[in-house]
């Protein structure tokens, strides 16, 4: 098993840990229906880094993200955002933590159909009752290329544009970390590539930290680092990934899956 | 298709629960009403049959009973008793007797205080009035009371009871307590029994009876016996009826009574069901929208449009059947409850088993099924329009709602027509036109219901703007949700609007009428107390004299009235001492001098003077009903007031035309600060006579307005059902909305909206819908009350529209509470949704 600390990070001079899992386990059900989704996983995500989590279906990649993002509870071990231990927080504090320190991009249904693009983008700040930083907001909107479409409702936007609104929403509140769950899953390849470009750019230019769950090797190739999960464990890690290298790694899972 | 319908019904049990509840409540109301009226009718009939059981013939005194030869006396009794086939003749005497309770008020109600003679048989007992304690009355100084009345007087056997018939108070010794099943007594009346001679002396004419009840020997034909009795007695002097005729007559009266109660209740049940229609239609619209892919699939595999429609209608029919069956069971409870409620409100409904006619069952089930199917008809048409290709489309979002243009145009036309009719009503000079007003009201309400989606937008915006600062993001989200489907929001609010507009309209009219009534009697009265006789028989002139001497009394002014005609117009003339009348009434003279009103002159009101072309000095020809005429001169004119209406004269002018010189009322003004204690003293001074009624201004207002209030509260109760169903509708809409927006709620929670924020969002949407319905209802209600009120005004000039803002504020507060309450369950569900499952939900 490799450890993040063993690899010096070129793009994160501060090196501070944005999120960390230590011996994290997640078990569903009891008795015969007991399923271990995560089996004492330890991993760190550094500031200003774009990490992709990959693995076959049922490998626990989404569960890992949900536990780290405070969307799901942990069975044992520890999940931290910055230096806050999530297991010690109640529902109210977790909600506040998600609101103030985490951004989300989901596969679909990211937006409220009743709100305009701009209203959707500022929603987390509206919930917190904060005024958005105008300059920052303009920059984010520019970065994702939505300037002309802010007054549109989601139904008037294409799928790619909708996901860009979701990314802008995640960026606008300047969270410590953004979790993206299959953000390109519902997009055609061109829109997907565009969106991944924006995510990459936000890490480069805006120094965001992004953790993305995906099963698409091309998507993973936009990340600085790829973590591979299988059967609830971290089985490998790759720096500066290319699509081909990731695909090769994934094929090994498939082969294993077929033979076992 | 039947199986599909059944499966769908079972699959959506919980989502259909609220709809079923709406149908259930409506049918419970219908079946409750039907069972109640059947049960009460049958109980009345049983009771009557029992009391008329052994009555073969009844003979009552005719109108000319004062003439000697037509008297219903013992000669008549003997001649009837001598007829073959007559088993017994019970000669009875009855009348009004007021028994004093501990406070010297009548122990029984004004209309139910009766007295009768005790008719002992050979064994000394009277089968009609079984004595449970003591013995029957045998002498003039003795009385027997029913148990309830005895308890109210606090008298035990052997004690003295105070009572009055039409004059001074008298005392009698209580010698026994009797049982009675007289419905008047069980309804709050009282019964006093005397021996026959005393009863005749007190209640009628010595030696005469008011009714003979004849029983027949077994095997005697009632009809023939009645004919024989009729032949025996002088023609036209008495009214002779067979027991059967009496029974038929009463049965008819009972039917009339129960059917009028039934029809009133059914009208309200109809309103409740109509409100239910909105909820049913809402539910099926939502279900079909959610199920559109499924329906498209059915169409794709070969189901015809007609089959899709049929499937939806069968589902509705099944739902209606199940819900109305449950509703019928609840209706039995309603029927029992109605009796209890009406009884506690003072109606004396006889006891009896619930009567369930097969017709009631069929009607309740039929109404439930038909209403549900009809309400689901429009949504089912929408289902038929779903194209098979939609099964393949990955329709994430429901199709954009159709434009409201046609609907708004129709709504505008309906509303305009309704408003125009109501405005026309305000120009009418007479009270005819009730039907037109009702049609106009219905049109106006229908128009507003059709327009409601259009109106919802500005209302919700305004509401959100007004509360935005307080409610933050939850308020904004709630606003957007409420606006998302204006048809649904409008239909839900309309259900509430119907109930509230009727409630508001009735309240405004009733409160206005109340004030009109209060004005009519009291606005010109400055006296503290009005003393009258409880049996409307008038007061002896001595009473005013006694009261005038009472310490603490500034003035005790007697008033008497005589009817007369002047140029064939009937009017009332009052006789009073004019200088002292000024102390108890607001009497202002506009011309002439009150001092000049003596024998031979009168004062008239300015209104009467104007109507009859009179002025000071003109003669007023008066034709009295005793055949005499007089032509006094007008000596003064006073401003119209409500204490003495048309003509004011001296007693010396009017007294000769009175049959008996009795005062209608004595108006008492207390010395400053003495008003409070005076009431008890007046009663005491007048010997504690239960006949004497002492009413303060407040009592008078309450007694005039009391019945209006009672009716209004009954209406509130009946319309309450429609409101309850509307609340069920709000819960239904919210629950469905939460279900539809599961993914959104999951996303909101993930990006940081707290559970309380989610709850707040659902709650605020609920409040917006409820307030929209309430504001529409109150607005329409006030408009209809204003325009329809003109009908009342034409026959009731004191009527002036008063909007009871405080009460309307209470309605709005209730609507607010309704909104909050309706949201409790859906909000909790929304807040408890599992975030991850919600985001992934299909």
TrEMBL record, chain A:
One Gene Ontology MF term: ATP hydrolysis activity
Domain of life per record: Bacteria
UniProt entry tagged with the keyword Acyltransferase: no
GO CC terms in record: membrane protein complex; plasma membrane
Gene3D superfamilies: P-loop containing nucleotide triphosphate hydrolases (3.40.50.300)
Pfam families tied to this protein: ABC_tran
Keywords: ATP-binding, Nucleotide-binding, Transport
Limits of the ABC transporter domain: 19-256
Signal sequence interval, chain numbering: none
PANTHER family xref list: ABC TRANSPORTER RELATED, IMPORT ATP-BINDING PROTEIN
Official protein name in the record: Peptide ABC transporter ATP-binding protein
Species, as recorded: Streptomyces albireticuli
TrEMBL record, chain B:
Pfam families linked: FtsX, MacB_PCD
ABC3 transporter permease C-terminal domain span: 267-388, 718-834
Entry superkingdom: Bacteria
Presence of the UniProt keyword Transmembrane in the record: yes
GO cellular component: plasma membrane
Record carries keyword Cell membrane: yes
GO molecular function: transmembrane transporter activity
Transmembrane segments: 265-289, 312-338, 358-378, 404-424, 436-455, 489-513, 711-739, 767-786, 806-825
Membrane topology: Multi-pass membrane protein
Compartments, as annotated in UniProt: Cell membrane
Principal location listed in the UniProt entry: membrane
Keywords: Cell membrane, Membrane, Transmembrane, Transmembrane helix
Domain MacB-like periplasmic core: 17-231, 489-683
Family, similarity comment: Belongs to the ABC-4 integral membrane protein family.
Protein name: ABC transporter
